[in-house]
Design the sequence.
């Protein structure tokens, strides 16, 4: 198969939102923001006017809607990953979205954001670059402080609470959580950002981004009565804390279960876990997740981390029209990073190698679009590979690969953690 696919034009300048779309984007966002009775608290942003940078946390599509409400009627450009553009490139460009391939170093994007700021608009960035897996902060790029300094405009954060527990990445069903909350806060004025040191900017952004949706839910006493509330949780919690076995977890209704030792946990209406019998190892879901991370880190530090060779298929996204089935082959993720090799229908071999220093984090999907299965999203500047290990032929957890990507990177560059 000759690769002569049309490529997404990443260099097109950002569009200023068409005047007639501005009220429309607001109206499209309003019903959901209203349904969840979102309370937006403003700190230091009362007299604020664009241009400014808006850094938002990322848990669900509702994040965009709350951001639209928070900044209305100002114009904004939103940085969005290419998969968000599929089949609606023109609309997304018209409402001001800028496309990026996830976890690539993209100088074009910086030029586009400079343009946004020069236009006098709001540059909306989701620096976690992927949905949070369990409602806590995902890693932030070390380049973020530098970007803010370069843009030289006020830095504002929008931290939403309740979006993960309302519609978690691992089971999107809307649980009707209300009221949700959002903090719209000035972090740096234009003058302050110019004089601040890079380390300090990164540290303050990281501090502003500390959030924990399950802790928030418990503090607020918000009950979720949805009967299927634990379904999908085994995608994140893939390792049993009782017998330590990986990849044997399952979930149904409100129950999370290890199929190796049979231990079960019930997920309460307040989002906590309780062992059906014996000790509750982790009642707080993010603690279980961090325990898994510590186990992955130990494998990385002893140099033993490897998924082994996994049979995979790859769907490629050269442009935003649709995925193109590229072929089948193998993927391995180990101490050297990712290596994927697939053969297409004409017998041609395609390879993607992502070294450890080339990726500080990794975007994954669970049951992509409800039917395609779990995958790892690997990117170059001109292509995106959704790589699906075959669950019929191997055992794996894409969550572990995402954790390992971060632990491998930070083992190499501890100062960036
Ligand atoms: Zn077990």
Sequence:
């Amino acid at each position: 198969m000759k690769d002569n696919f049309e490529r997404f034009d990443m260099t097109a300048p950002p569009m200023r939102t068409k005047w007639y779309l501005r009220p429309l984007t607001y109206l499209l966002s309003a019903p959901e923001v209203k349904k969840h009775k979102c309370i937006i608290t403003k700190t230091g942003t009362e007299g604020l006017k664009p241009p400014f940078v808006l850094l938002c946390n990322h848990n669900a599509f509702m994040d965009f809607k709350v951001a639209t409400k928070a900044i209305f009627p100002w114009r904004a450009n939103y940085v969005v990953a290419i998969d968000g553009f599929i089949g609606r490139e023109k609309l997304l460009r018209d409402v001001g979205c800028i496309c990026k391939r996830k976890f690539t170093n993209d100088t074009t994007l910086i030029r586009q954001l400079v343009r946004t700021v020069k236009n006098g608009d709001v540059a909306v960035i989701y620096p976690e670059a992927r949905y949070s897996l369990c409602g806590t902060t995902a890693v932030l790029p070390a380049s973020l402080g530098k970007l803010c300094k370069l843009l030289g405009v006020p830095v504002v954060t929008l931290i939403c609470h309740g979006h993960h527990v309302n519609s978690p990445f691992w089971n999107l069903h809307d649980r009707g959580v209300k009221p949700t909350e959002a903090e719209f806060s000035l972090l740096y004025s234009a003058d302050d950002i110019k004089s601040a040191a890079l380390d300090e900017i990164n540290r303050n952004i990281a501090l502003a981004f500390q959030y924990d949706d399950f802790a928030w839910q418990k503090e607020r006493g918000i009950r979720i009565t949805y009967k299927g509330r634990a379904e999908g949780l085994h995608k994140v919690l893939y390792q049993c804390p009782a017998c330590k076995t990986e990849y044997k977890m399952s979930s149904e209704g409100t129950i999370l279960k290890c199929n190796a030792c049979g231990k079960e946990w019930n997920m309460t209406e307040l989002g906590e876990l309780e062992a059906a019998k014996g000790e509750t190892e982790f009642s707080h879901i993010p603690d279980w997740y961090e325990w898994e991370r510590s186990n992955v880190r130990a494998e990385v530090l002893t140099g033993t981390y490897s998924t082994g060779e996994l049979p995979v298929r790859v769907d490629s996204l050269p442009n935003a029209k649709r995925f193109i089935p590229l072929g089948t082959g193998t993927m391995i993720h180990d101490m050297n990073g990712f290596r994927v090799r697939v053969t297409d229908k004409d017998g041609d071999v395609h390879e993607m190698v992502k070294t450890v220093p080339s990726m500080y984090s990794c975007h994954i999907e669970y049951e992509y679009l409800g039917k395609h299965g779990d995958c790892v999203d690997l990117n170059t500047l001109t292509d995106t590979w959704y790589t699906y290990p075959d669950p019929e032929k191997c055992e794996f957890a894409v969550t572990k690969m995402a954790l390992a990507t971060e632990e491998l990177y930070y083992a190499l560059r501890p100062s960036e953690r």
Q: What stands out?
A: Residues 240, 242-243, 245, 258, 260-261, 263 surround zinc ion (CB under 6 Å). The chain has eleven helices and 18 strands. Residues 13 and 111 are 9 Å apart (CA to CA). Residues 233-301 form one domain.
